[in-house]
Amino acid sequence: MSDIKLEHGVWVVVADGEKALFLRNQGDHEHPTLEVVREIKDDNPPTREQGTDRPGRHSDGGGNPHNSGFEETDWHQLEKDRFASGIAEKLYKLAHRNAFEKLILVAPAGVLGEMRKQMHKEVSDRVTGEIAKTLTNHPLYEIEKLLKAA
């Protein structure tokens, strides 16, 4: 989705796999003023720090004496997916309480995809725009400028 309209009161969720900012526009499209409603952080160290065991092995079978290794689990990516799922769940609870009418999502493509998979219809019906970018470490004035230009 493009053609983002930053109406007064619209919520903007800026997320990646480890941090999410829930923002509300107190201004309008011409003069957006985003304020932080909530910030969520997740401690997600690299896979090498989460799982140190070597992947298991299995017999290729059929009298073949070779053993093959299982693919190594990407614990870091699994946690990013779990975090995106948690954001979708949080948005559902907020939508159920009518905390927002319209929502703009800003996240890397993979996180957006995972959020969409887990998103309840009550939330997805309120999404008015999406931007596939990582902006979680940008200051609010830069996020406002990028959204206004989108």
Write a concise synopsis of the structure shown.
This protein has 5 helices and 7 strands, in the order βββαββαβααβα. By secondary structure, it is of the alpha/beta class. The longest helix has 22 residues, at 75-96.
Keywords:
alpha/beta, Host attachment protein, two-stranded antiparallel ribbon, 5-stranded mixed β-sheet, single chain, 23% strand, 150 residues, Nucleotidyltransferase, domain 5, 5 helices, 33% helix
The overall pLDDT, averaged over residues, is 84
Strand content: 15-25%
* Largest β-sheet summary: 5 strands, mixed
CA radius of gyration: 20 Å
Shape: elongated
CATH homology superfamily name? eRF1 domain 2
Measured as a percent range, the helix fraction is 25-40%
Instruction: Output the strand order for the largest sheet.
Output: 3-2-1-6-7
How many independent structural domains? 1
| Total beta strand runs | 7
Which fold name fills CATH's third level, the topology?
Nucleotidyltransferase, domain 5
CATH uppermost class: Alpha Beta
Order of helices and strands: EEEHEEHEHHEH
| Low-confidence blocks of residues | none
